[in-house]
Write a structure and sequence with these properties.
alpha+beta, 5-stranded antiparallel β-sheet, 3 helices, 24% helix, 22% strand, binds guanosine-5'-monophosphate, binds zinc ion
Length: 114
């Protein structure tokens, strides 16, 4: 998608602090972090939201989840605990319509979320 912010980050047309990348996914730090670890994991391929990702072929949703866990390991929060969040649709406050998993950790996270 030519007009998608995260497609531009995937294409390296817009800079981001990349934490991890492989053939199908890219992980980079959120520009407005809400926790010491706040990383966004995106599939390289454009899908608008979690629903579209769930319907994607080739196990792409698996790849996003595996990369989320890899990020937690790399940031040292895999054992202390972390949260993986897909904001999907208006009630969840999704603002960027290229699906992304937020990986949050490094502090005690409250529940329920706001
Ligand atoms: P959403 O609200 O759609 O779940 O999350 C979008 C996230 O993208 C927000 O947490 C926001 O801070 C982050 N974000 C927005 N623009 C940029 C950007 O240009 N670079 C990076 N690294 N993160 C961004
Ligand atoms: Zn995109």
């Amino acid at each position: 998608m030519t007009d998608c912010l995260f497609c531009k980050i995937v294409a390296k047309e817009i800079p981001a602090t990349i934490v991890y990348e492989n053939d199908s996914t890219l992980a980079f730090r959120d520009i407005n972090p809400q926790a010491p670890t706040h990383v966004l994991v995106v599939p390289r391929e454009h899908h608008a939201n979690a629903r579209a990702l769930a319907e994607a072929d080739g196990g792409l949703a698996d790849e996003v989840l595996k990369t989320a866990h890899t990020v937690a390991e790399l940031d040292g929060v895999a054992d202390s605990g972390y949260r993986v969040v897909f904001n999907t649709g208006p009630d969840a406050g999704q603002t960027v319509f290229h699906v992304h998993a937020h990986v949050l950790g490094g502090r005690s996270l409250t529940w329920p979320p706001g």
